[in-house]
Amino acid sequence: MFFPDQEDDVALHELDNGNEPLLPSQRKNLPRLYDYVLVAEKMEDMEDQIFKKQDAFICELKQKNIKVTKIERAGKVFFGICAPEEMFAKYKYLLKVSDACNWSGEQQCDLSVSYCTRIRIVHFVLNNTFIGSGECLRDLLYQGAFESIFCLHEKKEQKKLRTKWASWFAVMKLFQQPVTDIKDYFGEKVALYYLWLGWYTRMLIPAAVIGIVVFLYGLAFFNTSPLIHEVCDSNIIMCPRCDIRCSVWNLSDTCSNAKVSQLFDNEGTVAFAMFMAIWATLFLELWKRHLALHVSKWKVFDWCEEEEELILEIVNNPQCKPKEFRHSYLRSIVVLLLVTLVLVVIIGLAHALVICRVLTAILLSQSDWDFFRDHANTIAMLSGAVLHYITIQVMTRINKIVAFKLCEFEKTRSFAATEKRFTVKMFTFQFFTLFSSLFYVAFFLGRFNGYPGNYVRIGGKWRLEECHPSGCLTDLFIQMAVILVLKQTINNIFEFTVPWLKLCLKRTKAKTMRKKMCGNCCRKACREEEGNFNLCNPCMLRSWLENYDLNDVNAFSLFNEFLEMVLQFSFTTIFVAAFPLAPLLALINNIFEIRLDAIKMVSLERRLVPKKTNDIGVWTRILEAVGVMAVIANGLVIGISSDFIPRLAYRYHYGPCATSNSTSLDCMTGYINNTLATAFMSNDKVREDFKELIDNGYNITQCSYKDYRSDEDQSLTSQFWLILALRFAFVILFEHVVVMCKFIAAWFIPDNPIRVKNDRLNDKLRRLKKELQEANAIYDSRSTDV
User: Fold this and answer.
1) Which helix (H) or strand (E) holds 41?
2) How many helices (H) and strands (E) are present in the chain, helices listed first?
3) Using an 8 Å Cβ cutoff, are 201 and 590 in contact?
4) CA atoms of 203 and 198, how far apart (whole Å)
5) DSSP states of 210-277
6) For 99-103, what is the mean pLDDT?
7) Residue 510: which of 535, 552, 541 has the closest Cα?
8) Cα separation, 55 vs 150, whole angstroms
């Protein structure tokens, strides 16, 4: 049995006084004895430079009146960091007199009991403490003087969050999140992430419902569409898809592809794309109102990041000088050129994926297996999507390293500025990595591959891949579905299981050692306080070890969550015309994503450093940019990629309803045949392209391919130019109408609700009245003295 008075068995050393007990009785009423814990490897050689730097850093902390408690156990050294109360009193006073103060007269902030605020202040002080050689804590962590640093979880609050929020049982509470409790525990920055994610998930409901309706609309005409019947019942012979071991094929072979295309390429898609473009604007405008309500409630509406930084600088060092803003045009130009170079490399990888798809289709078409030969293009398309997903995973790690290096080269004045620039660079790199292949499929696939007798070839040898007669939108749909499903499913599995397995292994390994290190405790007070206050020595050490075993976090842990969700938002809006079910998949994913992230933050990871903020930062600008790109991309997908415009032109200008008064035929009858051109084997160039086919004994005189060309000389017909003009006219009209609707929606919905404006007005009035009363009291006292 271990008793609290057996201090020599725990090898405790108080750096201020070696004989002073770890938990002095006169300090038992303090709200928290330790703010941070530093961990280092135990070193025997005191002349080692690493040990000297470690000792120098601890001495610097002591000079700032920071209490440091040292515990040595099992080859590890734990330093408990406890900042003095006067540090927080200074912060409170400076914040009160600052311009950014937004407290009402009745609600003053008691920083002495706010552990969340203590962590933030001490974190700044630790990271801005320098030893004699000019090295800070980050440098010492990199050099190995310290292994890690972490702040402690509060067991009572942790248990409260688990019960109300961070558990799988809370999935049933779809949109109920205790954001104020999250703010009190993790800080405003984390709370606003979950507030934004909850709002985004809630707004996905109407988008998902409309997407399902569009899908059901296409399904309703699944068996009655004349276009599907025309493809499935056709006996038209199509030209070979490749040069080697590819034969002619019947148009009816693409019956299944035509049916799939009908589900996503119909009249409802246009309305849905317009709805989603306006939805993105409504989402952002309503989010700003939702945000204003909460930041006003939390009294951080007027919070200023620069002023907060100055206050922390003065608290850390009263003799400090401000970090002045600097800008170098030369560095900016160099960074811009390097970013452009990275984007060129990413686009080059997209071209490499195209070549891989072409070669895969050629190799599969030469296979001895009939299944591979018959489905060469489909398999090549699926394999290309999977290969694209693997490329995304690899490039994500490379992009992060490159973005960090570019930010270091820029030499920003603060971590907040570094974070903003890193966010923009990383999102740009990831956006091009994820969407470059999709842009190729949407706007380039099958458009520059030529025609029989004049095919475009890679290296003069391999033909480019083609779209099947039902349209290229099916290829885009499959590409998006594979990437979206794989990315969300696999990422969520790894995001949860990897930290969970790591924690299980650590706890299993450390369980026996922890019992030996810490001993047992029978104090009733320790059990009642549950590790938050006035613990005995073994319980304190056990609490430190429990937090030490948790998975490590860093300053960009929350950034990774934001990046994942904003990229999902991009998928949901930019190419939604090709995949109306994307909002539904995003909604299902987010319902579990909220709880998964919550469980990970509360139970599997060390406590994130609380950070104060009043918005989601540069992510708002990125979301607005994505909304604009969604308008452009969806307009181009409908106008250029889909068959919406050619169908309209045929219905009202070339079809049976336009050329005759007969009503017995469907207006779209003959549309598929109208989109096909014929190549005759009597043409020498055509015979040269299909030489192997003729040599193998195929006795055909003609074959068809999808294009608007003359059968005689293969020149472009007038119908091609009319449809091209209509496509561009539609894109321009679509974008102008939708952009106008976006501006009207943004103008109509104010960013701040009237209630927030009135509350802030009343708060300012009360503060001014209180200041006037205090001034009058001082004036009256002086008059009395006179």
Assistant:
1) strand 36-41
2) 28, 13
3) yes
4) 9
5) HHHHHHHHHHHTTTT-HHHHHHHT--PEEPPSSSSS---EEGGGGHHHHHHHHHHSSHHHHHHHHHHH
6) 52
7) 541
8) 19
Please give the pLDDT value at position 231.
86
* DSSP H or E stretch at residue 148: strand 148-150
The radius of gyration of the chain's CA atoms, rounded to the nearest angstrom, is: 33
What per-residue confidence (pLDDT) applies to 33?
A: 65
CB 349 within 8 A of CB 396: no
The answer to whether 480 touches 382, Cβ cutoff 8 Å, is no
Task: Quickly tell me which residue has 């293009």 as its tokens.
Answer: 377
* Alpha carbons 706 and 84: distance in angstroms, whole number: 78
- Nearest Cα neighbor of 53 from 129, 149, 113, 124 is 129
pLDDT number for residue 6: 36
Question: Contact, 65 vs 44, CB < 8 A?
Answer: no
| H, E, C per residue of 715-734 | CECHHHHHHHHHHHHHHHHH
pLDDT confidence band for 514 (50 / 70 / 90): low
Residues 293 and 756 sit within 8 Å (Cβ to Cβ): yes
Which DSSP category does 695 fall into?
H
- The three-state DSSP-derived secondary structure of 566-613 is HHHHHHHHHCCCCCCCHHHHHHHHHHHHHHHHHHHHHHHECECCCCCC
User: Rounded to a whole number, what is the largest CA-CA distance in the chain?
Assistant: 121
Which pLDDT belongs to residue 2? 33
- Quick one: tokens of 713? 């000389």
pLDDT tens column, 213-265: 988 888 887 777 888 888 888 888 888 877 776 778 888 888 887 887 777 77
Give Cα 102 to chain centroid, integer Å. Answer: 31
Starting at the edge strand found earlier in the chain, the sheet holding 36-41 runs 12-14, 67-73, 76-82, 36-41, 148-150
d(CA 149, CA 634): 47
- In this prediction, residue 662 carries a pLDDT of 59
Please list the residues that pair with 463 across neighbouring strands. 457
Write out pLDDT tens, residues 13-45.
Answer: 434 433 333 333 333 333 456 888 999 988 888
Buried b (16+ CB within 10 A) or exposed e, 689-711: bbeebeeeeeeeebbbbbbbbee
Closest CA to 437 of 345, 342, 349: 349
Q: Coil, helix or strand for 324?
A: coil
The whole-angstrom separation of Cα 651 and Cα 535 is 81
Burial of 265 (0-12, 13-18, 19+ CB in 10 A): buried
Distance from chain centroid for Cα 642: 29
DSSP output for 657-669: HHH----SS-TTT
Q: What is the pLDDT of residues 406-437, one digit of tens each?
A: 998 888 888 888 889 999 999 999 999 888 88
Query: Which amino acid, 486?
Result: L
Token duo for residue 411: 């030499």
Nearest alpha-carbon partner for 620 in 295, 207, 307, 175? 295
Q: What angle separates helix 473-518 from helix 376-410, to the nearest 10 degrees?
A: 60
Identify the bridge partners of residue 81 per DSSP, sorted by sequence position: 36, 68
Structure token pair of residue 180? 């104020």
